[in-house]
Amino acid sequence: MTDAALLELASGLALRAAEVILAIRARGFEVSRKADRSVVTEADHAAEALIVAGLRAAVPEIPVIAEEAVAGGATFVASPAFWLVDPLDGTREFTDGSDDFAVNIGLVREGRIRLGVVGVPATGELFGGIVGVGAWKRLGRVETPVHAREVPAEGLTVLASRHHGDTARLDAFLAGRVVAKTVNFGSSLKFCRLAEGIADLYPRFGRTMEWDTAAPQAVLEAAGGTVCTLDGSPLRYGKPGWENPFFVCTGVVG
Fold this sequence. Notes:
This protein is of the alpha+beta class and 254 residues long. The protein has two domains: 3-146, Fructose-1,6-Bisphosphatase, subunit A, domain 1 (Fructose-1,6-Bisphosphatase, Chain A, domain 1, 2-Layer Sandwich), CATH 3.30.540.10; 156-250, D-Maltodextrin-Binding Protein, domain 2 (3-Layer(aba) Sandwich). Helices cover 32% and strands 30% of the residues. It has helices at residues 3-27, 42-58, 67-71, 91-96, 167-174, 189-195, 210-222; strands at 31-33, 39-41, 64-66, 81-89, 102-109, 112-120, 125-130, 134-139, 142-146, 156-161, 179-185, 201-204, 226-229, 247-250. It has a seven-stranded mixed sheet with strand order 3-4-5-6-7-8-9, with helices on both faces. Strand 10 (156-161), helix 5 (167-174) and strand 11 (179-185) form a beta-alpha-beta unit. Helix 1 packs antiparallel against helix 2. The mean pLDDT is 93.
């Protein structure tokens, strides 16, 4: 299957998962906590089951590493190619009634993100990208290319995590930079807003897992942006424990 076909497979599954998530939100749901005290809902599990089944049926040769399976005790070993799935990124936003939650499906090859989609159930947006090829945003039947931007003359628009920020560290990181404004967002939407050129910088100094970042990193890098660790190295995948180091997302570096 070509990369374009794999991207369309992931796109269709993200849209179907979004429908399931919205249906559960409309009828109500209970909230429970995982071993790490993070929240989880029926919507997380239902969306993950749909996505994993769809990926395995279409491309059984590519393993699927999904957040709730790992949380439930499943163990996986990184392979030359594998999917990373976060069926409901931003569960806290979802349970709080915010619209900042997403569906992430990304494909890794040889430790680097290759392609991914980020669905935004509440708005109907769908972002997709193949690294080195290009990125797009779909809304309904309309698809438009998206591109990261160079920093405008008035300064940086900085995105920060709504619930997991480190204000003191962020302030220190931004010292000496010209900042026009700082905006708080939840979930992988922060990457997508950089990808579509409405923000410039997203430093992350809190804990994230690989399924949180794989798909949105594909979108941002396909749109011309970058995702690097604090030492400037590309953010890679298949790490022990699936945990990321701190990282910085940027638009086009002028």
